[in-house]
Hints:
Helices cover 37% and strands 30% of the residues. By secondary structure, the chain is an alpha+beta fold. The longest helix is centred in the N-terminal third of the chain and has 19 residues, at 2-20. The chain has one domain. The chain is built from two helices and four strands, in the order H-E-E-H-E-E.
Amino acid sequence: MPRLNTFNLFSCAIIYLLTACGTPQRDFRVVNRSDGMIGVQAIKGAKELEAQELAVTECKKTGRSGAAISEAKTTHNDQFPMIYIYQCVR
């Protein structure tokens, strides 16, 4: 039985480490633009996939099912040097 407890502890540690590897959500800022696009400002080193997940979440709030990337560019903002622009799709 102690082997099972060690296995459970090891499994929990692996799951914790895998979830901790992503960029924290506080390192992103979601902006609803006046043209209907979604802007996701991100810190340097953040993955585009993480930004897309936030854009999809924001699009779902408006009844759309997904988000397609329209543009990715650098900014002059020291805190959020990258911005990803998404268009909500059905």
